Amino acid sequence: MTKLTLSTHPFLLGFDELERLVERTAKSGNDGYPPYNIEQTSETSFRITLAVAGFAEDDLSITLEDRQLVVRGRQGDDVQGRVFLHRGIAARQFQRAFVLADGVEIGEASMENGLLHVDLSRSVPESVVHQIKIKKG
Fold this sequence. Notes:
Strand order of the largest sheet: 1-2-7-6
Radius of gyration: 21 Å
Low-confidence stretches: none
CATH class of the largest domain: Mainly Beta
Distance between the termini: 39 Å
Shape: elongated
Structural class: mainly beta
Order of helices and strands: HEEEEEEE
């Protein structure tokens, strides 16, 4: 028995790129850190909020790579001369990726109280109807 996928289903033509995106996202290795929220702020806009306590703005980078919003964090190791009796706050680096659909644009990013906010907006495509003429053969 043949397994139907997006690229082999007879009614879904040209969706092979979407299938590759889903596979790549599943393999991206997001381990749950840092925790995040995604909220809808209007009919056509969203906000991704990541909990990045302990990171400064200079420790973070936000890039768009092949339709993926990638947020990376790397803290400097400033423990020289410090003696920890207990170290429960790890200075670990992270990478968190979000796949963006066509038409989604990145707005501004801001930091507030240890939370990184990234605003996104989606343009609503215009409904278009084309008449296709049949050539007489």
